[in-house]
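Lab meeting prep.
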Amino acid sequence: MIQVTVKIGGGLCGINKHEFFYHEVQKNTSVEEFLTILSEHVGDDVLKPTVIVVLNGVKLSQREIRERKLEDRDMISLFGALVGG
């Protein structure tokens, strides 16, 4: 098992301020698989294509979300897309 730090904010899942928590998953879990697991705990908002996914400070593309495997102590930040003018 590996431990991943999760940061959710920006109105995603009804969370207006940033919240941090830890989640354990199997080694070799992809970011995409992790988001599916996470959705069972915080809701389906994390699966929307408009969600911004940042891994260890680097924004991931959709391809990277599918292919990137998580490592112990990775940090995933999830934010709702912000719009305005």
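Slide two material, second protein:
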Amino acid sequence: MVDAVVAVLAGAASVLMVWGLVAARRGRPPGPAMLLTGAAVEALLLVQALVAVVGMVAGPGPAGSTVLFVSYLATVVLVLPAALGWALVERDRWSSAVVAVGAFTVAAMVVRLWDVWEGGVQVGGPGA
């Protein structure tokens, strides 16, 4: 995993989360700019996923649990498209909140992916 991409992804997803929360608070559905920002974050997620898969195939792979890493990787690339799809179908203030929740989930999962890649957490925790 590329540390700089992890930082950019976590930051961009956090900005998208705040943007979604502000729009929901103002009673506005997500506009085209918010949806395009979400699509850009998703594109960067796909790049990071490709880098991670190449790293697993060509290199040593994650220092933590490979099963846990692959599970997170498969899930994180699906969360934002689901939230953005919901926002496109249901155009009300709550769809902005859905984008915010999806963006928060992506930010948290990207940091967790990085943690598992670096070997910070093992399955079962201490003493397992």
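Talking points for slide two:
The helical segments are 3-25, 32-58, 66-89, 93-118.
The CA atoms of residues 82 and 102 lie 8 Å apart.
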